[in-house]
Amino acid sequence: MAVMKFTKKSYTELVKIVGRDRVSIEKEDLACYAFDAKEKADLPSAVVMPESAGEVAQILKLANEQEFYVIPRGAGTGLTGGAAPVMGGLVMAMAKFNRILEIDTDNLIAVVEPGVITGNFHREVEKVGLFYPPDPASSDFSTLGGNLAECAGGPRAVKYGVTRDYVLGLEAVLPTGEIIKTGVRTAKGVAGYDLTRLLVGSEGTLGVFTKATLKLLPLPEGQATMSAVFSSIDHAAESVSAIIRNNIIPRTIEFLDNASIRCAASCRDIGVPLDADAMLIIDVDGKGTVAETEIARIVEILQDNHVTDIRTAKTREEADELWAARKLISPGLHRFGPNKLNEDIVVPRSKIPDMIRRVQEISQKINIPIICFGHAGDGNIHVNIMYDKKDKQLIEKTEKAIEEIFEFTIHLGGTITGEHGVGTTKSSYLSMEIGAMELGLMKKIKHLFDPKGILNPGKIFV
Fold first, then answer.
1. Which residues, other chains included, contact 65 with Cβ-Cβ below 8 Å and sequence gap of 6+?
2. Fold of the domain built from segment(s) 220-420
């Protein structure tokens, strides 16, 4: 790839497009955009905040003419380096695109700009009795545009699916500066290739989102919460399968391994024995008394699957207390190491015990804590390897551990990333999962959309 540079002339032309107040080359401003939630990358050459699709188009046309890189950015909450510059260039911060343009209660759709905070969108649609299911852990901070770029998931994916399942159409600007509109506003639409699904999950490499039409659902009337503790991860996994075999699809089924339980308990008493091998936290929802009926049925199923303790919440406060075990893991992680590598592998539900045992073996072999928790309903395991990045030997051990974990994940029929994306951190492992022919097709698509390679370089492909 040819070296591309943002020059003084580029800055002058950029000021003509957006004005001096929405572009900066000051180092203190640039430093704020040199990283995402993963880690620091390169300092960008400049930062720009466009306010319209037209401005985005002009900027990308300028980038093609003068040959400098452009890195689209939402809130920077990504965990794989997707929004961080790795070759300098211009960061395009989409914070000004922060409007909910329409909530259509007759057709159950919304039209939004990409800079809308996901949690704010949740609250606004719920005010009118509607529901947007995708719920990444970062929803109080992440933007809808970032969620679209990564095809974000979350705990509710087991019942409701992930971001791509709720995107009906897009307005986007191609790397060459053309504005395109994809998809529909209707429940059905199969005219031509599905460009909407191609763009969702493309990690800011094929286009810049400027508008999205999203599908909504009626807000569930009732919700119930319970927790269950097991002496064996196998019993926990079999219980998850048994629940689904009995035609119950919970809103969420979160699991904690023993290391996660101890991690949460290091912050405060969570009422779970430290020798417990696994814990499930389960939410169900539905109309009328459906939630209460299903939670009672789940209790019966668990009692036939070697559960050692069951707690059901009678109030919202009690539900929050049950969820405390899950929410305390992240604050407790750094008691086991100053730094972490957070991977988001997915395996078939029935293979969770095999995966957890393999991770435990690797942890013991390298003598580094590895804490696993995640979404049991869809097999999405968050593997947190705790280490000290100042120790070069530990870094080498963790890199080897990740490779072994990915290899075993693929062996079990899984994937190396369920919701975080590839970015820069997983690009060297992508060929483990995707064949040479398929990777070649993807690279050809990237070149077709972005012939000069100006948009979000260094991401996904090595």
1. none
2. Vanillyl-alcohol Oxidase; Chain A, domain 3 (3.40.462)
